[in-house]
Amino acid sequence: MTEQAPTANRYYLTTPIYYVNARPHLGHAYSTIVCDAIARRKRALGVETRFLTGTDEHGQKIERSAKLAGCTPREFADTIAGEFRGLWDRLGISYDDFIRTTEERHKRGVQHLFAKLRERGFIYKGRYTGQYCVSCEAYVDGPPGTLCPDCGRPTETVSEENYYFKLSAFERRLLEFYEENPEFMGPESTRREVISFVRGGLRDLSVSRTSFSWGIPVPGDEKHVIYVWLDALANYITALGYGSDKPEDKARFAKFWPADMHLIGKEISRFHCVYWPAFLMAAGVEPPRSVRANGWLLFDQGKMSKSRGNIVRAETVDEVLGADALRYFLLREIPFGQDGNFSFDALVQRYNGDLANGYGNLVSRVVNMVHKYFGGVLPEAGAATEAETALRAHAEAAIAAFGPAFDALNFSDALKALWGLVAATDIYLTANAPWKKPAGRADADHEALQARVLATAAESIRIITALAYPILPDAAAKVWRQLGLGEISEAARQAFLTNLAWGGLKAGTRFGEPAPLFPRAEKDAIERMQNLEDANNRSAVEAAGGQAQNETKAAPAEVAAAAPAKAPVPLAPPAPSVATAAAVPAPAAAAPAAAAPATPAAQPEAAQHITIDDFAKVELRVAQVLVAERVPKADKLLRLEVDLGYEKRQILAGIAQYYEPEKLIGRKIVVVANLAPRKMRGLESNGMLLAASLEGGAPVLTGFLEDVPLGARLK
Ligand code: ME8
To answer: Does some domain include residue 591?
Structure first.
């Protein structure tokens, strides 16, 4: 390992590079927004900052997704990478570089790194037979049938001749490295988890695959592709020019490596805090200075993720409340490092409370009064009274509190301190009421008070705005113009945060036109956001499952089985040519219904229409069968264990006469997820499968032609 380079006045920070198998959602936006806020503050402090983001485009997972979508992996990756980049541009993310792992510069750098590792004796060839989780692109210890410990999905058995990285040689070095660099990883929970993982013993790591080809070939042995995590992690150095001989690339690498911070989600800590420093040490490259893990953004009580099907898109919030509202909410509401709930209610409450009624209203009052009473030119404040001195002291305390809290990633505390100044300025303004001239106050005295109060409040707003700029870049830019200070981006280039001393806003400054910042969100804001999400989810589900549903209409089993004379709850209007709705009976109905399955349901009558709200009560979700076996002494029942992505559960189904249990394993099906649990033959059943019933025949389980993530909801 080389020596620790002196900390220069430069800062290199990175987001994870996101997989292109899923469209961006708020979870991705969260990590990216955190980095963007940090990058903006660093730049405004005069630090030469480089902010990298990008997309992770290789691996079996992407190859399979592309195949299912009927396009090449390259076409698939181009589309989703474009969506990520487009979203970051829409949200005003100030990245300096966007790397795609399919780019030539990356491929060259990864091959250089691989060759270096081999040359230095850390790579050897061996045979790997074991379990692999395609979703996490990770090797898993255990016998066939082992579920992935990270995501809970079934693993696949692979047996391949592979290249191995001597990770075991780094156990002691890594522990020493953590000890010597206590700042290397955080928060504390991540640190503890990683250290205990390494203490548990490190085994050599397979770093190539031969069973698929969508990846970077091993130099000199092209039938192997390089393990996707080695490929992906290397982006942090290949984006700087690692592996290139060009002088400008070498200079960039020398200048910005080691990275100051890799910001990641907590689930990928092991890759960043164990494998990555080990790869770098082995290659003779210095490890990054720090890795910081954000907690998970939760929605509907679970981690927001594509596989759970509970995502919210950043575009929705941007469209209704603006990107700044989202940035503020995420940084203010969630203590960094912890998991945090996202809800439209909480978002709108924060928006109205802190932004519309708080900061936005304060700015609007002051700017409007400067226009009204002083023709838009900032007056001289004159001599300060106790009230001005107190507000100034408050502002100075806010400056002193904000920076250290922000720089320690305690964004929530930093904003709390700053919004304390918003409140204090508001109180100051109201207490001095420059809009109200009491009877008996001389004109000149009143004008002096107006000048003093408005100039003081405007100065406080300048300080609030400067500090808030990394979190509220759009709003700050507008306020800067309204205060007559020009372009805030230019001020940031001049490192305006290095000098926030009181008194920066000079008398005589001509204010810009007042412009609304955060219009109050009315009641319908939540509904609008929900509708946008519903419409998006609907089109996603239609895209994923519509074809299958058109071929065989499906209906929840129990509704039909329990009440055959009533209309089933249709997923699609019943078509005369297709017999609708029968079902795999749920446990309670299973015994009788299984004996006489395929009861054709009556056609719904017009009078029996249900509302969309009725339908929404039924939670239909995609699940995968992990285990299927016959229930002893119950010849019609199968016991299934299914994976809903966010949880696994047991379901009993009366399909033993129609489906061989082994054939069901791995199959994706639809289940009614919110059915009350019932006991059958002493076993609990949690939910029900959906199947179509053919006239007088066997039930046919639902399925999808395209790949559908586990847990995705059918609406
Ligand atoms: O893991 N809450 O990519 P990925 C908070 N390609 N953060 C979330 C989140 C949530 N609900 N969902 C996603 C990969 N994230 C690899 C990384 S890096 C060399 C390779 C954020 O598309 C969080 O930063 O699965 C998480 O680590 C990342 O997105 C995972 O993105």
So the answer is: no
Residue that the structure tokens 């691996």 belong to: 59
Q: CA 145 → CA 11, 160, 650, distances in Å?
A: 45, 18, 17
Distance (angstroms) between ligand 1 centre and the Cα of 404 equals: 27
- Is 390 found in the same domain as 284? no
| pTM, to two decimals | 0.77
One DSSP character per residue, 143-210 reads STTPBPTTT-PBPEEEEEEEEEE-GGGGHHHHHHHHHH-TTSEESHHHHHHHHHHHHT----EE-EE-
The pLDDT confidence band at residue 565, using thresholds 50, 70 and 90, is very low
**Measured from the CB, is residue 18 less than 6 Å from ligand 1?**
yes
Q: How many domains does the chain have?
A: 3
pLDDT per position as a tens digit, 656-670: 877 888 878 888 899
Please enumerate in sequence order all residues whose Cβ is within 8 A of that of 510, keeping only pairs 6 or more positions apart, or say none.
376, 377, 378, 484
Q: With a 6 A CB cut-off, is 303 part of the ligand 1 pocket?
A: yes
Instruction: Choose one of 478, 493, 508: the last residue of a domain.
Output: 493
31 lines ligand 1 (CB under 6 A): yes
Residue 331 lies in a domain: no
CA distance 392 to 398: 10
Bridge partners for 265 per DSSP:
294
Question: How many whole angstroms from 453 Cα to the centroid of ligand 1?
Answer: 48
Q: Is 16 in the pocket of ligand 1 (CB under 6 A)?
A: yes
Q: 434 to each of 26, 357, 373, 544, how far by Cα in Å?
A: 43, 19, 9, 61
If residue 700 lies in a helix (H) or strand (E), which one and from where to where? strand 699-701
Q: Is 631 helix (H, G, I), strand (E, B) or coil?
A: strand
The range of the structural domain enclosing residue 80 comes to 10-303
Asked whether the predicted pLDDT for residue 539 surpasses 80, the reply is no
Q: Which of these three, 239, 273, 303, is where a domain ends?
A: 303
Mean per-residue pLDDT of the chain: 87
| Residue pointed to by tokens 């089109």 | 539
3-class DSSP assignment, residue 493: helix
- Does residue 34's CB lie within 6 angstroms of at least one atom of ligand 1? no
Q: Residue of the nearest CA to atom 13 in ligand 1?
A: 27
Rounded distance, CA 263 to CA 42, Å? 15
Give the whole-angstrom CA distance, residue 84 versus residue 19.
10
Structure-block tokens of residue 534: 């519903």
Give the CATH number for residue 688: 2.40.50.140
Tokens 């890759």 belong to 271
Question: Which pLDDT does position 541 carry in this prediction?
Answer: 56
187 CA distance to ligand 1 middle (Å): 17
Q: Report whether pLDDT(543) > 90.
A: no
Q: Is the CB of 233 under 6 A from ligand 1?
A: yes
For residue 27 and ligand 1, the question of a CB distance below 6 A is answered with yes
Examine the domain organization and report whether 376 and 268 are in the same domain.
no
Ligand 1: residue whose CA is nearest its atom 19 = 233
Same domain? For 259 and 392 the reply is no
Angle between the N-to-C axes of helices 411-432 and 386-407, in degrees from 0 to 180, rounded to the nearest 10: 170
What is the Å distance from ligand 1's center to 265 Cα?
A: 5
What is the predicted pLDDT for the residue at 306? 79
Confidence of residue 546 (pLDDT cuts 50, 70, 90): very low
Structural domain contains residue 346? no
Question: Looking at the structure, do residues 28 and 164 belong to the same domain, yes or no?
Answer: yes
For residue 554, pLDDT beyond 50: no
Q: How crowded is residue 579: how many other Cβ atoms within 10 Å of its Cβ? A: 19
Please determine, for residue 700, whether its predicted confidence score (pLDDT) is greater than 90: no
275 CB less than 6 Å from ligand 1?
A: no
Q: From the alpha carbon of 19, which atom of ligand 1 is closest? A: 22
- Residue 434 beta carbon below 6 angstroms from any ligand 1 atom: no
> Is there a contact between 249 and 108 (Cβ–Cβ < 8 Å)?
no
- Nearest CA owner, ligand 1 atom 26: 265
